[in-house]
Amino acid sequence: MKRIKFTELGFKKNLNTLIPVFGLVLFILGIIAFLGYIDEKYSALAYLSILFTSFPQMRTNFYKNYFIWNKSDAQIKVNSKAKQILFKEISSVQFENNNLILLKKDNTQLDFPLKNINLEDIKKLEEILKALIKN
């Protein structure tokens, strides 16, 4: 059974949000050093900052199945199908026949096959979605 990697975004929820902020600080220090206001050996910090600011975007490439969310939207990738969803556009969520079905307010639906996904992860996904989607 495949697992889903769950990540809730926010400073209070995990420290991964601080990594891009640290990258921005390094970038500012590197630019200041490049302009000559501080020692030029620190200008390499601007290049190092690229790794820190791009880390959250690259991180999702390492997981086959993930669900990343905050209070307004989510990114979901399950069994090679990926989509960005806004919770205010979703009217209801259904789990049936190993499928996640998200019904949008414009009467369209998004289907995600949950075949070979761990049952605990499906239940956790259902709890999160039902808590965040307001009818």
TrEMBL record:
Lineage: Bacteria, Pseudomonadati, Bacteroidota, Flavobacteriia, Flavobacteriales
Name of the featured protein: YcxB-like protein domain-containing protein
Keywords: Membrane, Transmembrane, Transmembrane helix
Bilayer-crossing regions: 21-38
